[in-house]
Design a protein that fits this description.
Blueprint: H1 3-9, E1 11-15, E2 18-25, E3 30-34, H2 45-51, E4 56-60, E5 69-70, H3 78-91, E6 97-103, H4 104-115, E7 120-128
Parallel strand pairs: 3-4, 3-6, 6-7
Antiparallel strand pairs: 1-2, 2-4, 2-5
Helix pairs in contact: 3-4
Length: about 140
């Protein structure tokens, strides 16, 4: 999927957290893709291209990233990201997901699965942060 096609496929959900940008392609069980900082859902275009024939692929832009428009005064902490994801899933009538996350999205995914295990069928973390180490230091000793 090229940039123009991805942009044309973008949808928005009005929530108390703001206007959440997301991609929703395919049908069946849901794979929820969480991107890292400072990226957006476009990070997952290749995976969505390959998997949307087999799964419903949902990839939101986190609060304060990508095309999501954050509500006035809304926190953008990892805790707030988890609550935003719950609101988005509820609005889309999604009860459970296969959760796929990368980079700082992994910190949010870990919080999500520990707080709402009933909503997660499987978890795949790729090169991820943890909430206590997010964001990672810029240099190492």
């Amino acid at each position: 999927m090229n940039v123009a096609a991805f942009h044309a496929a973008r949808r928005f959900a009005e929530t108390r957290f703001g206007r959440i940008a997301y991609i929703d392609r395919g049908a069946g069980e849901v794979a929820l893709f969480l991107h890292g900082f400072p990226l957006n859902s476009f990070q997952w275009r290749g995976a969505i291209d390959r998997l949307s024939a087999h799964r419903r692929c949902v990839a939101p832009d986190f609060l304060a990233m990508g095309y999501t428009q954050v509500a006035e005064g809304q926190s953008v902490t990892p805790d707030a990201q988890v609550e935003m994801l719950l609101a988005l899933l509820d609005q889309l009538a999604i009860t459970s997901v296969d959760l796929v996350a990368n980079d700082s999205g992994g910190a949010v995914a870990q919080l999500f699965v520990t707080r709402h295990p009933e909503r997660v069928r499987t978890l795949l973390l790729t090169n991820c942060d943890t909430e206590m180490d997010c964001p990672r230091p810029l240099c190492c000793r």
